Amino acid sequence: IHTAIVLPDENLLLPVLYSIPQEIGKINVTMGYGLSHSSVASLVEHIALLQQNLRTRNGETAYYHRHVKALLNHPLVKMAADGEAESLKEHILAFNRIVVPQSEIPDHPLLSLIFTPIAQWQEIGDYLHQIFSHLYQSLTMVKRKDQSSDVTDAEMHDGEPEEMRAVDLEQEFIVQYYKTVTRLQDRLSGAGNMTVETWFGLLKKLARSISVSFSGEPLSGLQVMGVLETRSIDFENLIILSMNEGVFPMKNASGSFIPHTLRKGFGLPTHEHQDGTYAYHFYRMIGRAKRVYMLYDTRTEDVQSGEVSRYFYQLKYLYNPQFEISERVVAYDVAAPESAPVTVTKTAGIMRKLDGFLAGNEKFLSASLINNYIDCPLKFYFTAVEGLSEETEVQESVEADVFGSIFHRLMEIIYNRYKNRTVTPDVLTGIASDEVYLTEILEQAFARYYFRDEENPRPLEGQHYLIGEILRSYVKQTLQADQQFTPFQYIGSEYRFHAAYPVRDGLTVNFKGSIDRIDRVGETIRIVDYKTGSGPTDFKEISRLFDASKSNRPYQILQVFVYGLFYLMENPGTRVSPAVYYLRSVFRDFDPSICHDKHPIGDISIYMEEFSEMFRSLLKDIFDPEVPFSQTQNQKNCEWCAFKDLCNR
After folding, report:
1. CATH number attached to the domain at 3-31+216-322
2. CA gap 377, 369 in Å, rounded
3. How far is Cα 507 from Cα 580, in angstroms, rounded to an integer?
4. What is the per-residue pLDDT across 326-363, written as a single tens digit (0 to 9) for each?
5. Which of 224, 514, 540, 543 sits a CA distance of 20 to 30 A from 312?
6. Rounded CA gap, 38 and 158, in Å?
7. Domain extent listing, the chain
8. Confidence label for 304 from pLDDT (cuts 50, 70 and 90)
9. What does CATH list as the number for 400-630?
């Protein structure tokens, strides 16, 4: 009771409370906490955004997914409807819902209340009252569960458990916000036209002026209070935070249109009066204290000047002989240390996870994982061994991966009609000129990979229509590029293989893959891979395919070589030629055939001995317990890596 922490800036209340060590014991807070900083205020802000951005789709109200997810992630909503909130979030991701129709909102009392469309501003008051009432009841049920559960002796001795006190505080915030809505509703009862946005804006301004008082035991414990709460109270020890000029005393912010000179001439309150009031409170507060600690922030950022309050200078230069003043600057050396290379040692546990890729187990390596390992062994560890991946988000536009998937699907649908048949120039010309057919399969592919609702293809509109037309042109140009290989026999698309690859005695590794397209030109089997970007079709040496130090390593060529390796394992003696179709290159004179030193590869088997030797050496390193997973030395590989923050790149 003899010590007080004084907060000129009430926004520091919660940080201070969280910073006080447990050894302090009891704490008494005798200051208000702004209603606008409460969790219910943030909930109302999310609700306001939801209602201000309503959409109508096919005659049904729909909500923007970001506003929906913000509400579903709110602590109060999760407390009252956790299961339904999680299921709706999963549904939004599963079907890539950019806007969420009203019909897809789960049947839960709170969610049904929140996701009720508001047509007129007069409805908002009752709408919010119903939401607050349900939240209050939900918190009451939570409190009853806590009361019926086991409570420790220490908690019983101190009074209510911490969780119950937190619930009481949330309920107090809800009650105060309920009253605030009622006040605004009464004041605007005779108002004319108004938008929903204006109503919520007025509510926000009104909430800023309201504080919710904390209750506590004033005769014991550490006292935490604002400047005004120290009136008529004396403390032996004072800790005053935020002793910055502009915070204490507060910077003058007159909201009047009356000039300062007129205010002073007619005896109206001026900023001098405000400064005098603050000065009185400061000197009265420290008048009988034995020890006063004043803390200020020297940083100059945003609107903070970094200057100590004028009251400190007054004490230092006007009253210094009467008492001892000690000044200390606390500085932290926060220079970032140099980033040490990140490596992961292959422990027994990691080796057990790697064993899952061995023959007889259920995990498989692939060409893309091999490319990951070459580019960065640490990335391979994150993705293949630990199974980490980027967080799934709703795609508001057609991203590169979805664009590629749609194109792959279009080519698969087109050519599947000619499986094991000969494709002639007339066939390709006929497909390219059939606009109705191309539109139909575009809608099917979008439904599968973008809208994620394969059973309900829909006409493409707006941005999706434009992307569809780009895809249409790519398909036509790819068919035009295929003319140079006609007549050819189409064998299949998305050819999937599963194989056990022998590396050495006692080490056989599972592999799987999907070859985009296989066709036969004369006596040669072509293995075709589609790429949505651009890249090389020529390489100098096999070793370049495995050289991680080169930023332009032809990883695309390595991928088709891996496909060729496993195709030859299943079909020995076959003449195989690799090809990569780069969509950005199909509009010019383009040959997709892979070349070695400018010479097209007509039979990949002549390169397989050298390729297999390097491929096996790479696999031995992956499964060698003495070779750690280390981050790449080529930092260009880190530019678009999802894991670069984990290794400080």
Report:
1. 3.40.50.300
2. 10
3. 31
4. 899 888 776 666 667 889 999 999 999 999 999 999 99
5. 224
6. 25
7. 3-31+216-322, 34-210, 343-390+634-638, 400-630
8. low
9. 3.90.320
